[in-house]
Design brief:
35% of the residues lie in helices and 31% in strands. It has three helices and five strands; from the N terminus they run βααββββα. Strands 1-5-4-3-2 form a five-stranded mixed beta sheet, with helices on both faces. Strand 3 and strand 4 form a beta hairpin. The two termini are 25 Å apart.
């Protein structure tokens, strides 16, 4: 099973999600650790090669976790946030991009 590395404040942000969303994100990350795809995801090629986002829809809102799971030994969680608009903000994408770039250096 792959280990999970949370960059920046991504772990704290997941912990701040409402209980239902936090539980679902935990389950989906566990799927990634075991080499399976989450149930609802989309690629984020603008952030980096192989980067995707988990999409969680709950009664309390819509939540996203941007991650990279193509590494051989780990799942890299770049950013987590509650989505409040139909488009992901450039700030959220830039934050994930910068964290990935910094980690790769």
């Amino acid at each position: 099973m792959k280990r999970v590395t949370f960059l920046g404040d991504s772990l704290g942000r997941v912990r701040d999600f409402p209980p239902e969303a936090r539980s679902e994100v935990g389950f989906q990350i566990r799927e990634l650790q075991q080499g399976r795809d989450p149930s609802d995801w989309k690629p984020l090629k603008t952030v980096g090669q192989g980067v995707r986002e988990i999409r969680v829809h709950e009664a309390t809102g819509t939540f996203r976790v941007i991650y990279l799971a193509t590494l051989p030994d780990r799942v890299l969680v770049l950013h987590a946030f509650q989505k409040k608009t139909t488009r992901t903000t450039s700030r959220d994408l830039e934050l994930a991009t910068n964290r990935l770039r910094t980690w790769m250096e």
